[in-house]
Design a protein that fits this description.
Number of strands: 9
CATH superfamily of the largest domain: Vaccinia Virus protein VP39
Strand order of the largest sheet: 3-2-1-4-5-9-8
Radius of gyration: 22 Å
Length: about 325
């Protein structure tokens, strides 16, 4: 089921909470969705559990707007401490707003904290965390039955992170997905990455540099593999292609590039860049399909456990291209 189109604007107090407009639009969308889909439902919700709350931007606004008890959970003790400090600074500390340390990657950690009538929310949980949240909601739902927790979640980084790895290929988490043979390789999941080629995060300069470095490393007998994201430019600093080339080789313990190697690498990048740019126009389309496949798989897993579920675009793509929400209750 596809729900209504996302709202256009935000009424979130951007300056007061010191967040970017894109983040404000995402937070406002969560508040509106909860009011429309859960808050006014016959069973209602008693508490909101924000998984991966970070510095607590979403957590604070949910408590402020809904007037419910809201708890923010994060695995990083520094972020938990920072969220508490920010709440104190803004004068929002109360019994209805709290932050706790919880690593949802550990089996049972989230389940132990869930109560009857909880609404679990997640704004861009990365990689395997999305699966961990779905699994916890399923277990808690089986235990609490008529007062099982609900879920509202928008995922991101479906290919995984170092601290939230996803198997390659990603197996289906639902029985239906397994029967259909839904298996997604990392190369496909990367297309749904927030900063994949073709998104607003990719620039012409970075594409040229990456293509040039690929050719330079091939000349040195250091192939990068099939991923269009390789080699990574992270940690190389800022500068022209010659600077990046020296940094990339130094990172691998190799001698600096020669003038002829640099010329060959830059020539190869210049030839390949127009083709690369045309092909990467397809990336957002593929990314949307991959995001939909993963979300449908997770929604199916919840339905197999007795939940009703729906999918919908929660906010505009200008706020984030990863905006597909799973509703379950």
């Amino acid at each position: 089921m596809l729900l209504t189109a996302p709202p256009e604007a935000s009424n979130f107090p951007v300056q007061a909470f010191r967040v970017k407009q894109k983040k404000a639009d995402q937070v406002t969308a969560f508040v509106r969705a909860i009011r429309a889909s859960f808050y006014l439902s016959p069973s209602g919700i008693r508490r909101v559990v924000d998984v991966g709350s970070g510095m607590g931007t979403l957590t604070r606004e949910l408590q402020h707007q809904l007037g419910l008890e809201v708890i923010g959970l994060d695995r990083d003790p520094l972020l938990v401490a920072g969220a508490k400090k920010m709440a104190d600074k803004l004068g929002l500390s109360s019994r209805s707003l709290s932050f706790e340390l919880c690593d949802v990657r550990h089996s049972g950690a989230l389940v132990e904290l869930l109560r009857p009538g909880d609404l679990v929310v997640g704004l861009h949980p990365c990689g395997s965390l999305g699966e961990d949240v779905v699994a916890a909601v399923k277990v808690a739902g089986a235990e609490l039955r008529s007062q099982k927790p609900s879920l509202l979640m928008v995922s991101c980084c479906l290919h995984g992170k170092a601290w939230a790895p996803v198997a390659n290929p990603r197996p289906a988490c639902s029985q239906l997905g397994q029967e259909l043979g839904l298996v997604l390789p990392r190369e496909a999941l990367e297309k749904a990455n927030l900063w994949a080629p073709g998104s607003s995060g990719a620039t012409l300069g970075s594409a040229f540099a990456r293509l040039g470095l690929r050719r330079l490393l091939e000349l040195r007998g250091e192939p990068c593999g099939p991923s269009p994201q390789a080699p990574s430019l992270r940690g190389l600093g800022r500068g022209d292609f010659q600077f990046l080339a020296r940094q990339a080789l130094e990172r691998r313990g190799l001698p600096p590039p020669t003038a002829s190697e640099l010329a060959a690498a830059e020539q190869a990048a210049a030839v390949q860049l127009p083709v690369f740019r045309r092909l990467e126009l397809l990336t957002p389309l593929v990314g949307d399909v991959v995001e939909l496949a993963v979300s449908l798989d997770r929604a199916a897993a919840l339905e197999e456990s007795g939940y009703d579920s729906a999918l919908g675009r929660l906010f505009q793509s200008s706020a984030s291209p990863r905006n597909l929400a799973i509703y379950a209750g």
